[in-house]
Specification:
273 residues; mainly beta; OB fold (Dihydrolipoamide Acetyltransferase, E2P); 7-stranded antiparallel sheet; 4-stranded antiparallel sheet; 15 strands; 23% strand
């Protein structure tokens, strides 16, 4: 995976850093696994704006991803590695021995015609999916379930990975991408290897219009608002805005907002950085 810097022949290309997309093998998705996706523009069912700075963007279709990897002990062949406009990671189209096709999150280093499989007694190779009780300690994993059969929830974005550090009874101890160590039931599934497109964080859009293509509208800074609109608004001239805080008054920049009596706190062994 690599990126390249463009020659500044236009103002929008002066600082642009783009993905090489070396791993991508096709630009045409599998039609049977795509569905239409409707834009909300940040509005709810009554038409009220509930999410600001959202709207516009290029039309796109949703690719149905197999997060559960529940087709056990049936070998699949990787057909293509594709770009997905709905996520930062790449996706891979796999075809099972019985002819069924599914999309999965592509792990780093996956190749076309590679064989992958999910199940209890499979080899811990890149792309295979196994229960945490069967994965060797120290293995780098991704696409991890939080509840058995729920489907992958953790470590799904580009370049992210977790590590299986130890097991204690019916729980496995996982070090997550945030630095948090957490207990997860050993019956949960995970994929071997880290997620593809690890250089995604190095890309630079280069111009505001490229954010508009992604459906992001311009964001108004809090200090330029009026006091009625934001706690940091108002004042004569260019005032600092006071202590940094959110629109509803909660302190920002380091203030912990997680509830002290949250039920899942007992599964967290060490907090994130």
């Amino acid at each position: 995976m690599s990126v390249r810097k463009l020659k500044p022949i236009t103002p929008g290309q002066r600082f642009r850093v783009v993905n090489n997309f070396e791993e991508i093998t096709t630009n045409k998705p599998e039609k049977s696994l795509t569905v239409g996706i409707k834009k909300s523009g940040g509005r709810n069912q009554t038409g009220k704006m509930t999410m600001r700075y959202t709207g516009g963007g290029h039309k796109k279709k949703y690719r149905i991803i197999d997060f559960k990897r529940n087709k056990a002990n049936v070998e699949a062949t990787v057909k293509t590695v594709e770009y997905d406009p709905n996520r930062t990671a790449f996706i891979a189209l796999v075809e099972y021995a019985d002819g069924e096709k599914r999309y999965i999150i592509a792990p780093n280093g996956i190749k076309v015609d590679q064989k992958i499989v999910s199940g209890d007694s499979v080899e811990p190779n890149v792309g295979n999916a196994m229960k945490l009780k069967n994965i060797p300690l120290g293995t780098v994993i991704s696409c991890i379930e939080l509840k058995p059969g729920q489907g992958a929830i953790l470590a799904r974005s580009a370049g992210s990975s977790a590590q299986l550090t130890s097991r204690d009874g019916k729980y496995a101890i996982i070090k997550l991408p945030s630095g948090e160590s957490r207990m997860i039931l050993t019956e949960c599934m995970a994929m071997i290897g880290s997620v593809s497109n690890s250089d995604h964080q190095l890309t630079v859009s280069g111009k505001a219009g490229r954010s508009r293509w992604l459906g992001r509208r311009p964001r108004t800074r809090a200090v330029v608002m009026n006091p009625v609109d934001h706690p940091m608004g108002g004042g004569e001239g260019r005032s600092s805005g006071g202590h940094p805080r959110s629109r509803n008054g909660k302190p920002a920049k380091g203030y912990k907002t997680r509830k002290k009596n949250k039920a899942s706190n007992r599964y967290i062994l060490s907090k994130r950085k």
